[in-house]
Design a protein that fits this description.
Elements lengths: L16 H24 L3 H7 L5 H9 L18 H14 L4 H20 L11 H12 L5 E4 L12 E4 L3 E11 L7 E7 L5 E7 L5 E5 L11 E11 L3 E3 L3 H35 L3 E2 L2 E2 L4 H26 L10 H25 L9 H11 L7 H30 L1
Parallel strand pairs: 1-4
Antiparallel strand pairs: 2-3, 3-7, 4-5, 5-8, 6-7, 9-10
Helix pairs in contact: 1-4, 4-5, 4-7, 5-6, 5-7, 7-8, 7-9, 7-10, 8-9, 9-10, 9-11
Amino acid sequence: MTADGSAFLAPPRAPSMRQQRASTHGACEARFGAFVRERLQPTARQRDRDGTPLSREQVTEACALGLATLRADRAHGGGGASLPEWALTLEWLGAECEDLAVPTLLGYRHAAGALLHELALGRVPGAAAEGRAVAARWADAVARGQATVSVAYTEGADPFSFRTRALPTEDGYLVHGTKTWVAGGLIADAVLTFAAGPDNELLAFVIERDDPGVSFAARDLMGMRSLGVAQLTLHEVKVPRSRLLLDRDALTAAQRFFNERRLTMPLGALGRATRLFEQGVADLSQRLRYRLPVTEMQAVQSRLGQIHVAIETARTVIYDAVERADESDPVWDAVITTAKYFAIQQLEAAVRGLSYVLGGAAYDRALPYERGLRDLHAFLHLAGTQATLEVDLGVKAIAAVEQAATRRRKRAVDRG
């Protein structure tokens, strides 16, 4: 113990996300606010009406400003932001831009680049040695804002029944099949594509947009209409062996990607729900009933109180998952999965509840509420549907209970 007794003092703790929130959001406003207001927001409603994606030029601008590359490693030209800083930035972006596809796409883009970086370093089980140079090239291009890479996994079948097949050839593979949901596919330069090999082992390749036999078709969605979601069709696409990134156990890599998405994806939704609540309260305070603002009616106050509780409990759960991410399982983490499931349920219900008290304004396309509800509803189906996550979490919970019971029985036997 030192003379001043410092041995008894706990080491200083890093500021919590709640403590950092105001300063990080202020820094985002100073650095990126004009870009969001002048380049993203003016066309947000038009993109929604037309179902057109965020343009490549807008993504390039976001990269040049350091917004889209904020989390990427400084050695590769990124901003080197911490995970909490990145999470708070996505929350700020969700609040400031009516288009929830913006923080969703930027988070998705980073997660794909991060997986490519791990593959390039051989840190993912099953990483193919021959594909590391290609993985490194694309990871660097994403980090520097020179390209966007999407992930093609979903095809309406579990990974043990994939219909997208990769057949070996003399100098590589012939890939054939259809991926039904590729977020950002309409603007992607390349796609990390998962396919079943001849022995049904799951493999993964980089397939480039200009490869012969590759085609993308836009999906016409209810919400998230500018996320650039596409159906990817692969018609006997020749892929050189150098683009084989995973030669076994590609399911583990896919789960790493989805784990990252479940962690950061709800942040944009949190920002949007918070801003819609603030705007809704301001709008309601201008409405009169019996010569009083409706916000002075106890029924309305009760409903707004419920919405506030839903948003703040979602914030608490999401922040906790981000702050403990260093302790999480990188492949499939129960806390991260629970946080995504719970937070999205709460936020979607909060905005739906707001529509009850807003009345017709909630369905007016000239106002942000109607789109907010559609976009938030989409999160129920992203990075694993809520129904799928319920099953996964149930299986995990049953196994944990059974393991605990086994340990108790063993201790009882040991005690005699």
